[in-house]
Design a protein that fits this description.
Blueprint: E1 8-13, E2 16-21, H1 22-26, E3 29-35, H2 52-69, E4 76-78, E5 87-89, E6 100-101, E7 111-114, E8 120-125, E9 129-135, E10 140-146, H3 148-152, H4 155-167, E11 175-178, E12 188-189, H5 191-200, E13 210-214, E14 218-221, H6 223-234, E15 241-243, H7 258-261, E16 268-274
Parallel strand pairs: 4-6, 4-8, 5-7, 11-15
Antiparallel strand pairs: 1-2, 2-3, 3-16, 7-10, 8-16, 9-10, 9-11, 12-14, 13-14
């Protein structure tokens, strides 16, 4: 099955598959969102502890993907994500001869920003939204993990604000690419979570964001649309907010999904790098 559409290209190299945003490729920005079940990037147990054997497999899988991309996996910087709104500027790597994975310096971080060449920013997800940002004027990139908790905390807005504050980015220049994630068709929540969204985004048109399919029992929320609206209100151009239009749950046979895989879930990874 080929997932290519007007915004993305589906690449297959041997047993490695990934999606790339055409817009970023046009600017020479390396980017990839891995798909396929033969690789995964989850090195933690349910308590968040690092499992050495899993960490070794994660590093090997990053090597496989980077080889397919023609890149050195030692360039990777990957935070320990905790569903926060914390974003870190990356000026240089910690380890010269290995990827920066599970480093304490990047603990409790869900977004990375850099203007440095030859640093690959990585995040992982299994239904959560991944946002890849690029400012073609200031040559700045960001990789942001925005699960439903991150969306409630408006981490996408905090990312572009930090790009503006640190590097002088203008919001109307910034490109935002939305990777595959759970969509409203499958993001079903109970009343406690629905109320959080209703309160936080009461300034939006909730009728197009939240659907109550089973009265007082379950709601379906469009977190992708929320991010599109708040980013556009912040100043990003509508045409610069580019969606993959792919649901991870609908495509559970091709990519990892927490909702589909349950406690045995693995994660996909998203990569972005300034090449030139």
């Amino acid at each position: 099955m080929d997932l290519s559409n007007e915004n993305i290209v589906h690449v297959k190299k041997g047993n490695i598959e990934y999606l790339q945003f055409k817009k970023l490729l046009d600017y020479g920005i390396l980017n990839a969102y891995t798909i396929g079940k033969n690789i995964g990037f989850k090195a933690n147990d349910a308590s968040g502890n690092i499992i050495k054997e899993k960490e070794e497999k994660v590093i090997k899988d990053y090597e496989k993907v980077c080889n397919a991309l023609g890149e050195n996996y030692n360039k990777i910087v990957k935070p320990i994500q905790k569903h926060t709104d914390n974003i870190q500027i990356i000026e240089n790597k910690i380890n010269a001869d290995m990827p920066d994975i599970n480093c304490k310096e990047y603990n409790n971080i869900d977004g990375l920003i850099t203007n440095k060449k030859d640093i690959i920013l990585a995040t992982t997800s299994a239904d959560c939204i991944t946002l890849l940002f690029f400012d073609p004027v200031k040559r700045v990139i960001a990789n942001v993990h925005s699960g439903w908790k991150g969306t409630l905390q408006r981490i996408s807005i905090k990312a572009v604000e930090k790009m503006a504050e640190k590097y002088g980015s203008e919001y109307y220049d910034i490109i935002c690419c939305i990777c595959p994630s759970i969509r409203r068709c499958h993001f079903e929540v109970k009343e406690d979570v629905e109320k959080l969204f209703e309160e936080e985004f009461k300034d939006l048109n909730l009728e197009e964001i939240i659907i109550n399919k089973e009265p007082n029992k379950s709601w379906y929320i469009d977190t992708v649309l929320i991010n599109k609206i708040i980013l556009e209100r912040k100043g990003l151009k509508q045409e610069n907010i580019i969606d993959s239009n792919i649901c991870t749950v609908c495509n559970k046979d091709l990519m990892h999904s927490y909702r589909a895989e349950k406690e045995l879930y693995n994660v996909n990874t998203a990569l972005i790098e300034i090449k030139e």
